[in-house]
């Protein structure tokens, strides 16, 4: 049976701000911050003191996604997003809103104007200063904030009849902390944080931050490893290389000598493409690719493979293990040394190798290995290693022989190229491609003349090999061309009397200067002649190289050449860009004029003129998915009629959704205008052909048309049994059965106008390809399982939470959640400040009342109980609980409103009955204020609610019933305890909280405890957990050759920032035992080493793999979790696999040298952390049942 590779993608809402909008926002912020930093900012007529510690702000796409998601709701108040600062801006007009990009800068200017209107007298942000109305401006200027992301939304006509636009900007780290400084005054840059440098030259018109949003498209088969895995592979290589360079690497018990010349390795897309191309052949031996080093790795399993990303790290670790197993006696690479079996490890450690790129392939069943499934990993390296007679590396003082053009990274001991940052590389590429796009589309104007469109202009991309050669030449500080064979070259020199600091700005400056040659001098002809190159002061040769149609690759280097002796008093920076294929060839055309590339892809597809990868628009995609889900839904509900027969309901039908990766694969195949199936491994596939003698105008319509044609097979032929055998398949319903295959939940489609078809008398042919995952149409399997709708899904969603019948776990929207929390905190705040009046009596202030916040774990529990349409309280949840019912003869339109109604009704008990004492006893409780006291209970810090439309209630004259369940953490209403402690507001705030003066509530804070793991590593940790959980869930997990049974209630795990904060907080204490945090599972991982500890990210994956290995090492005989099973040593693995655990958050700490003198790192994965969401009845557990709830 074929198995499906599940590539999980996090898909957020794309930010609606384009390049100009983003640039305007970032520039507005940094212009303000720069003026303040330099002491030139004047607010309300007063020049403000200079700032010593103001960070430069840059765009963050993750924050932008969060901001856009919130903007899309057209909010009227703040989101309260944890850990992010937030500014809001609204604009109304009776006219058209026009380009939304303009509102980014407008919002920024509006916020900054607060400083102009109100000024500020002190840098210390107090409540009085905040209340003057400068809160938006102070967040803009907050020194420690360095990341920003914004969203914008056209909200249509508001209640006032005007068109409304909303802008949301979110910031990290968050600003506007009361009693902290907006910035530290002093000499500019004198207080720059560690790891930053002072930027003395700032050219905001050449801002490099935003353009990562314009990254080039990845092409299906050439990027099997995700970016996170690419980084992880490089990290493993560089960790090994760093240890060797620093002289701390121990191989087979022997500490190896330090290295003098070890290059820092980085990923190279060209090598990755060549490696992936070779991996796709499922080779059994080396490719012998000229000039490239190569490592191969194979993995066989009796089980189908799922996620392939894990094998990048596995291969790298396996290769490095050769050093551990066999060691090496000499750095001289000889045949005898190679024959010891360390060839993969020596290539990893080869000092002169600076580039790596890898590919991976699921090669399916290998007949030569007992029909086991096989995975192949190929990594290509440059410069090639393992050259006989040369040294692996030169031993000696670390970095003492770093090659020319590199600098020593003292922390790692590696020799790193002084190169442009990744963001600047992309900026350079984008400037080139923006220019080339205009030329290609015929919109480029030079000296007032619109130039003709180009028909053959390639999209340009960055090339690490060219970058290396360009950087090497830049390091020579030559003012003349290198004449490197086969490479085009542009030079740019900048002179300044100021010291040169940041070099990145010169990448964009050079590109703009070169393009300006066309603006200054134009070009009369597309034929390149000597007139383009002379005289030197009117040359357009740099611009023609930028525009040269067949040039597809670029790489640049930059060098601070110091004081130029030929021009005393001036510092010089030089930029070198190398191009391939080389341009500026005499008497050849710069580009060919004519119609743009077929299907108007222009520059979208990086030298592939094969049509766009998403020919179906979002509307077309939606139409396809809807046709499929309409069919699947009617089958699931038992309402589908095929050939006059009503079909039985389906119990396990997953909801289908669009998958961009599959769509790329389908579009790629459609572009080949095939006449038969592709045989794509692991994918189901439907094909549809359409011929017409007319004109094909709208390809979008063919998606729904194809889907309807496939579904019609059921109408034409019907089916008598759900078991798909060859006889049933041959009736001609194969397309329809793939559409209806219950386990398939992902679809992606492509469409192609294939032009005249000679076999059909020249009629125009259109082809539609849809591919599906997991694949359907397996003979002798059921199309779907008959039974009560969703009865087999309620406990068997595996890792898919998009099933047709499961969707009631978060009925309250974010706005509804916020409304409930706000209602609670409004009551709690008025009590805390002593302004609350109950039944005419003003109540004493509260000294210890926590600010309540939404808890998704509690909400899941509340929603699960609400789904039962209860008539009384739940038992055993461990939470406090309020219930609310409402009956109406009219159907509810918006369930969100019932959260507010319920909160108001509960709080109304105080208004109706009041209370005379804060001590809760039976008599007080019996007055009828129990819901209100739970709302006000001082120690309650978390709330989560659920809501359910329970339909008609026969006991209430068939009126429609809605039930609201709110549960509270920690619970209140303890007899004999105080509702709250009366006293001065906030005077008894619990530990780890601070007083919010505006509300009088005690808010939990975690100062300086941000998760140390990068977002990429967070996702990698989650992926490792989910990869293992998916295998367990689907019954494909093997331990010591034994396949473990399937699991019916395994939830998909995701990252939780609250848990990460908790885990990081505990990691920061460098403990040696568990924290025993209530309600939280916890895994610990400790690593000691005599080497210096570099980057910590690598340990997230290492810890996860180590924990999972407990299953491989010890196995488990039973799913029943008891103490004997725990004592076998699989406690970390069982926490990873615990079915009901769905949240994880981790922290890591470099704990320095321990008592033994070894350096120690700790990783803490607060998993389950999942703070155990009991979404399923305990009696239905059949996967790792608990005998002990928390094992420590």
From TrEMBL:
- What keywords sit in the KW lines? Signal
Q: Which Pfam families match?
A: CAP
Question: Which InterPro entries does the record associate with it?
Answer: Allrgn_V5/Tpx1_CS, CAP_dom, CAP_sf, CRISP-related, V5_allergen-like
Point out the signal peptide segment. Answer: 1-15
Please name the CDD domains in this protein's record: CAP_euk (cd05380)
**KW Zinc (keyword) present:** no
> Where does the record place the SCP domain?
20-179, 228-389, 423-587, 619-780, 815-976, 1016-1183
Q: Which GO terms describe its cellular component?
A: extracellular region
Full protein name? SCP domain-containing protein
Organism field: Caenorhabditis remanei
């Amino acid at each position: 049976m074929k198995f499906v590779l599940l590539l999980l993608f996090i898909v957020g809402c794309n930010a609606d701000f384009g390049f100009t909008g983003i640039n305007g926002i970032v520039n507005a912020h940094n212009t303000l911050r720069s003026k303040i930093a330099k002491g030139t900012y004047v607010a309300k007529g007063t020049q403000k003191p200079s700032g010593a510690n103001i960070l430069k702000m840059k765009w963050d796409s993750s924050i932008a996604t969060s901001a856009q998601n919130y903007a899309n709701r057209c909010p009227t108040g703040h989101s309260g997003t944890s850990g992010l600062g937030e500014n809001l801006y609204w604009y109304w007009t009776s006219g058209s809103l026009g380009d939304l990009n303009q509102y980014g800068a407008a919002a920024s200017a509006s916020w900054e104007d607060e400083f102009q209107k109100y000024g500020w007298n002190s840098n210390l942000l107090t409540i009085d200063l905040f209340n003057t109305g400068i809160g938006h401006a102070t967040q803009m200027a907050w020194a420690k904030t360095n990341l920003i992301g914004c969203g914008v939304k056209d909200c249509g006509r508001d209640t006032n009849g005007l068109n409304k636009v909303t802008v949301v900007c979110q910031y990290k780290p968050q600003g506007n902390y009361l009693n902290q400084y907006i910035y530290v005054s002093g000499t500019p840059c004198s207080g720059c944080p560690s790891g930053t440098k002072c930027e003395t030259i700032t050219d905001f018109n050449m801002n490099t931050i935003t353009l990562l949003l314009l990254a080039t498209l990845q092409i299906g088969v050439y990027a099997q490893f995700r970016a996170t895995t690419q980084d992880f592979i490089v990290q493993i290589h560089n960790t090994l290389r760093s240890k060797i360079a620093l002289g701390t690497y121990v191989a087979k018990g022997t500490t190896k000598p330090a290295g003098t010349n070890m290059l820092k390795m980085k990923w190279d897309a060209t090598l990755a493409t060549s490696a992936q191309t070779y991996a796709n052949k499922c080779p059994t031996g080396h490719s012998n690719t000229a000039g490239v080093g190569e490592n191969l790795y194979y993995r066989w399993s009796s089980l189908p493979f799922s996620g392939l990303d894990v094998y990048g790290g596995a291969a790298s670790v396996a290769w490095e293990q050769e050093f551990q197993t066999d060691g090496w006696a000499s750095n001289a690479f000889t045949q005898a040394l190679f024959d010891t079996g360390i060839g993969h490890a020596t290539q990893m450690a080869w000092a002169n190798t600076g580039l790596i790129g890898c590919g991976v392939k699921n090669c399916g069943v290998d007949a030569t290995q007992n029909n086991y499934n096989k995975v192949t990993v190929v990594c290509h390296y440059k410069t090639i290693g393992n050259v006989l007679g040369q040294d692996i590396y030169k031993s000696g003082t670390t970095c003492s022989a770093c090659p020319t053009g590199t600098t020593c990274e003292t922390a790692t001991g590696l020799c790193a190229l002084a190169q442009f940052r990744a963001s600047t590389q992309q900026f350079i590429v984008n400037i080139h491609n923006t220019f080339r796009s205009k030329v290609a589309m015929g919109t480029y104007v030079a000296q007032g003349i619109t130039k003709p469109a180009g028909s053959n202009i390639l999209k340009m991309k960055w090339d690490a090999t060219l970058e290396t050669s360009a950087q090497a030449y830049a390091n020579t500080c030559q003012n003349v061309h290198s004449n490197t064979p086969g490479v085009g070259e542009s030079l740019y020199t900048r002179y300044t009397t100021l010291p040169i600091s940041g070099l990145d700005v010169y990448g964009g400056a050079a590109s703009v200067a070169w393009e300006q040659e066309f603006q200054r001098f134009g070009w009369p002809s597309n034929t390149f002649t000597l007139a383009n190159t002379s005289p030197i002061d009117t040359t357009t040769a740099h611009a023609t190289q930028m525009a040269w149609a067949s040039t597809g690759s670029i790489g640049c280097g930059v060098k601070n050449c110091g004081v130029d002796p030929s021009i005393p008093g001036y510092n010089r920076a030089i930029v070198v860009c190398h191009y391939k294929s080389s341009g500026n060839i005499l008497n050849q055309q710069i580009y060919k004029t004519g119609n743009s590339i077929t299907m108007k892809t222009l520059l979208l597809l990086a030298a592939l003129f094969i049509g766009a990868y998403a020919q179906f628009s979002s509307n077309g995609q939606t139409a396809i998915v809807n046709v499929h889900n309409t069919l699947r839904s009617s089958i699931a509900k038992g309402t589908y009629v095929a050939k006059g027969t009503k079909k039985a309901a389906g119990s396990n039908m997953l909801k289908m959704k669009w998958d961009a990766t599959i769509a790329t694969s389908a579009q790629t195949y459609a572009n080949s205008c095939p006449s038969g199936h592709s045989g794509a491994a692991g994918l189901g596939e439907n094909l549809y052909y359409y011929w017409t003698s007319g004109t094909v105008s709208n390809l979008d319509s063919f998606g729904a048309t194809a889907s309807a044609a496939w579904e019609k097979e059921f109408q034409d032929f019907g089916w008598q049994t759900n078991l798909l055998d060859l006889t049933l398949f041959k009736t001609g319903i194969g397309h329809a059965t793939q559409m209806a295959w219950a386990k398939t939940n992902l679809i992606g489609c492509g469409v192609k106008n294939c032009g005249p078809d000679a076999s059909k008398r020249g009629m125009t042919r259109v082809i539609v390809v849809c591919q599906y995952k997991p694949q359907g149409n397996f003979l002798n399997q059921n199309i779907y399982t008959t039974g009560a709708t969703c009865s087999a899904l309620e406990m068997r969603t595996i890792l898919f939470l998009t099933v047709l019948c499961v969707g009631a776990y978060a009925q309250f929207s974010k706005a509804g959640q916020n409304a409930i929390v706000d209602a609670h905190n409004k009551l709690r705040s008025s009590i805390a400040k002593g302004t609350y009046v109950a039944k005419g009596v003003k109540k004493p202030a509260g000294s210890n009342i926590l600010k309540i916040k939404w808890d998704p774990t509690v909400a899941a529990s509340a929603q699960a109980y609400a789904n039962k349409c209860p008539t009384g309280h739940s038992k055993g949840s461990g939470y406090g609980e309020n219930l609310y019912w409402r009956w109406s003869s009219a159907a509810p339109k918006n369930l969100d409103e019932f959260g507010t109604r319920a909160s108001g009704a509960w709080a109304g008990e105080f208004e109706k009955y009041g209370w005379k004492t804060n001590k809760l006893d039976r008599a007080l409780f019996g007055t009828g204020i129990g819901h209100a006291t739970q709302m006000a209970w001082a120690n309650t810090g978390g709330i989560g609610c659920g809501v359910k439309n329970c339909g008609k209630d026969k006991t209430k004259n068939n009126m429609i019933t809605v039930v609201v369940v709110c549960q509270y953490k920690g619970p209140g209403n303890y007899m004999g305890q105080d509702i709250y402690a009366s006293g001065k507001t906030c005077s008894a705030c619990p530990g780890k909280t601070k007083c919010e003066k505006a509300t009088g509530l005690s808010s939990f804070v975690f100062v300086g405890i941000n998760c140390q793991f990068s977002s990429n590593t967070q996702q990698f940790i989650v992926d490792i957990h989910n990869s293992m959980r998916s295998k367990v869930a689907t019954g494909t997990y093997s331990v010591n050759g034994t396949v473990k049974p399937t699991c019916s209630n395994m939830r998909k795990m995701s990252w939780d920032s609250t848990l990460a904060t908790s885990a990081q907080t505990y990691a920061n204490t460098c403990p040696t035992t568990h924290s025993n945090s209530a309600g939280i599972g916890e895994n610990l991982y400790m690593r000691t080493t005599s080497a210096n500890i570099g980057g910590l990210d690598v340990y997230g994956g290492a810890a996860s793999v180590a924990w999972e290995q407990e299953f491989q090492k010890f196995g488990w005989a039973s799913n029943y979790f008891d103490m004997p099973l725990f004592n076998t040593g699989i406690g970390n693995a069982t926490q990873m696999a615990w079915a009901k655990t769905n949240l994880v958050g981790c922290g890591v700490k470099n704990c320095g040298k321990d008592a033994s003198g070894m350096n120690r790192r700790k990783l803490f994965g607060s998993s389950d952390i999942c703070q155990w969401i009991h979404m399923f009845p305990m009696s239905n557990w059949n996967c790792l049942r608990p005998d002990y709830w928390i094992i420590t």
